[in-house]
Amino acid sequence: MSESTIEKKESSKNGIPSSERPIIVKGARVHNLKNIDVEIPRNKLTVVTGVSGSGKSSLAFDTIYAEGQRRYVESLSSYARQFLERMDKPDVDFMQGISPAMAIQQKTTSSNPRSTVGTSTEIYDYVRLLFARIGKTISPKSGKQVQKDTPETIIKELFDELEEKTKFYVLFPIDLREGRKMEEQLTVLKEKGLTRLLKVDDEQIVDLSGDDADPKKIKPKNYRVLVDRLALKKDDEGRSRLADSIETAFREGNGRCSIKVRDGKEYPFSERFERDGMEFLEPTPQMFSFNNPFGACDTCEGFGRVAGIDEDLVIPDHDKTIRGGAVAPFDSPKFSKYLKDFIKVAAKEQLPIDVPYKNLDKNTKRILWNGKDGYTGIHGFFKDVKSQFYKVHMRVLYSRYRGYSRCPDCEGFRVRKDALYVKVGGLHIGEVSEMTIGYAREFFEELTLTDFEKEVAGQILYEIRKRLKYLDEVGLDYLTLERLTNTLSGGESQRISLANSLGSSLIGSLYVLDEPTIGLHPRDNDRLINILKSLRDIGNTVLVVEHDPEMIKSADNIIDIGPFAGTYGGEVVFSGPYDELLKSNTLTGKYLSGKKEIPVPKKRRKGNGKSLLVEGASEHNLKSIDVEFPLGKLVCVTGVSGSGKSTLVHDTLYAFIQNELGTWKEKIGRHRKLSGLRHVEAVEMVDQSPIGRSTRSNPATYTKAFDGIRDLFSNTRQSKIMGYTPGHFSFNVPGGRCEACQGEGVQKIEMQFMADIELVCEECGGTRFRKEILQVKYRGKNIHDVLEMSVSDALDFFVDENSIVNKLQPLDDVGLGYLKLGQSATTLSGGEAQRVKLAKFLSKTNNDHTLYFFDEPTTGLHFEDIAKLLKSFNDLVNQGHSVIIIEHNLDVIKSADWIIDIGPEGGFGGGQVVATGTPEEIASVEESHTGQFLKEIL
Predict the structure, then answer these.
(1) How far from chain centre, in Å, is Cα 93?
(2) Where is this region: Disordered (predicted)?
């Protein structure tokens, strides 16, 4: 029986075609999963939920996705497969129905400073192609389009411009090529039979065969070589003779010719791509790429910024006018002459100088910075300062304003000058990149093309519009195409990956997503849910690890893993539709049905009466706002994605405080004034960046509990006999560690064209230590066994060792009891890394008044864990500290003492304070999106 017959028999088994058969997993034991069986319906939206650390990711990513990926790699070349014999198969008895799988995780996409939203979504690549295909090159001198002239286009122009029987000359310029002298050039012309020259100003004809042709008197700019004298005839014969003459002129004039009307003007033409005496490059896709040496601006090498003068230091307050002292260096008696020079130029050019700097048009800013006529410009001023570096005070003055500024040559657009002369729809590629996705979508939807352009670029435009539509629909309309991907939050980069997946329109695939609602305001959840449903509806299976009630409610099928975390989890406690989950007795079911809830605080704390005041915050999209942050309270900063929360809290408030403490090297968000710092003695930012870049960093080393553990092992009788020190029990230094993998436990194999593969070290079997070290036991466990313990188990094991318990207890308190002590920091999710940091701060007893910043701490948290987290926050505030949280989770928002709501929309439509007050006060504000959701739960 042939294989295809067997397949057909298989696929019609039980009458269900294989494309509709569910994904079946039996006996999964990865990490803490307890031999579980799961069935996931095909082409449906399934949500996997449960408390943090219960095993959701182990099931979704480490079992189902890993197997899908492994099976795909098995279909690859024998080169790739030779490593896959050693690539671990997920620990599972049986799996069936797995499709090619794609994971969309929260990891920030790239740390590459060249990667932008446009390049990572491929939109920029299509835009480059569009500009190369249908872009019109516009001369910066005359503003007219640059084209190559042909005899046909010249004849058409002459027929349109001139009357019948108009007399004119066909000419070409004298070109002294290859360093020829005029005498030689005239001899060459005579040999070719071109014996007449025309003097342009008085139309006098010089005969080269006569005696009056003196080479010394003939200047190339005043004379042209005469090819023909004609009167315009618009019939075939006239057209034919004119075409022949023009062709001759082009051939002999090195691609240039001109038509001079008798007693009238001269029309210059060129076969080359030039106009107004400038030669232009013909558009190619490479010319628009800032990642290609050919297309990148030479000065900034495609980064858009150069080391030089920082605009925000030169103009610290963008609300000031130029006359009112906006330019800081000119606002002193010594350099006020520069301001006077600018005012003279402004009067002549009619430039507005009594308008706030932020409202000035591009032309005024260009003249202010680059100078004109008698005014040297800000750049010119600093050039003068540099030329006097032998004076100490000039070096000090320059250092005060040093930083990074927009590249003066490409004006921050990253590409070579020639690329900026090419326009589509009246804009060059730099101006298109500056648009937000929302505006860009509108621009490309409304772009009107000729029939010819539609034929050439129709498909390109379709691809651009499709990708912009998906990015807009996942709620990223406020991001600009030039935004660097390394400045995006985890949620934003995940939604970009999601939009990319939609753009590729694959069907029959398995998509595994890790909390896609992170960083999304409840208002935007519906848009995201609709997108996941559309992925499902075109024929894909969507598996989402999620805690969001809206997402759980919209799922076709829900798998609840639990009942608790770590060793107490790993079981399927519920599988089925939403209605049945509400009736179930699981933790998730109880919270969703309202049997259990996070209570609203009985009263709001009054705080300590002190506050921090930020005035005139105007970085990015902030609209010069004044915001007061009360201290001694739990303060929540809310608002839709892209409204300006992080810009206000992280880039302005936190950056300024850190700068005052002398530990900030980055840029500080623009603002007028920040007061109240004397009330804060220390500041801590608890964000989602990894707790360590190295695979060696783990919860035990980070919390310093490992120091105490190593001391215990080095004090055992066996260690004393062998002479082992605490250093022998460290995998970071030579001595006790396995030298084959240098204490990593894994060896990395570099794969061509694929991600590197990590394989367990064959020497130590992944234990990280030498065999002799592993023979040292403490209460029956060696050092590797201890690192494999969960935090909760370690607390029981070391119950009478206070130095270790005190370090580990806070990890358990913030809901991380399930983490292994030796779990690599690089495998922790953003939310876990953030809670490890929180635990570290909780374990410290400090009496200084500390201001804690948290950036979406509920990432990856179940309702039960959020309750624990809120307790930790309240502990910090009750100890006399202040906590400021950027958050979208309504349970945290309703528990805050004070809310600052930024918005009302994202991007340009945001950046204002919509409302401030207690949750009850915010709920009564109609304009606040947050208020509308709070009203429902309060």
Answers:
(1) 41
(2) 1-20
- Within 8 A by CB and 6+ apart from 199, the residues are 205, 206, 222, 223
Domain boundaries 110-146+277-304+412-487, CATH class: mainly alpha
Are 103 and 542 within 8 A, CB to CB?
no
At 1 the pLDDT is 44
Architecture of domain 305-406: Orthogonal Bundle (1.10)
Q: Give CA–CA dist 489/732, Å, rounded.
A: 32
Neighbours of 214 (CB within 10 A): 9
From the list 639, 523, 671, the residue with the least C-alpha distance to 909 is 639
The amino acid occupying position 361 is D
Give the domain 151-272 fold: Ribulose 1,5 Bisphosphate Carboxylase/Oxygenase (3.30.190)
d(CA 768, CA 783): 10
**What is the pairing mode between strands 256-261 and 266-270?**
antiparallel
Tens digits of per-residue pLDDT, 798-857? 999 999 999 999 998 888 888 899 998 887 877 788 889 888 888 877 778 999 999 999
**What is the pLDDT at residue 669?**
92
For the chain, give every residue range classified as CATH 1.20.1580.10: 110-146+277-304+412-487, 699-824
∠ CA(555), CA(560), CA(566), 5° rounding? 140
For domain 611-689+866-937, the CATH architecture is 3-Layer(aba) Sandwich (3.40)
Q: How far is Cα 918 from Cα 604, in angstroms, rounded to an integer?
A: 8
Q: For tokens 């005043």, what's the residue?
A: 222
Q: What is the DSSP string of 555-582?
A: -SEEEEEESSSGGG--EEEEEE-HHHHH
Write down how long the chain is.
938
Q: What is the CATH number of domain 3-106+505-569?
A: 3.40.50.300
136 SS3 class: strand
Helix (H) or strand (E) holding 55: none
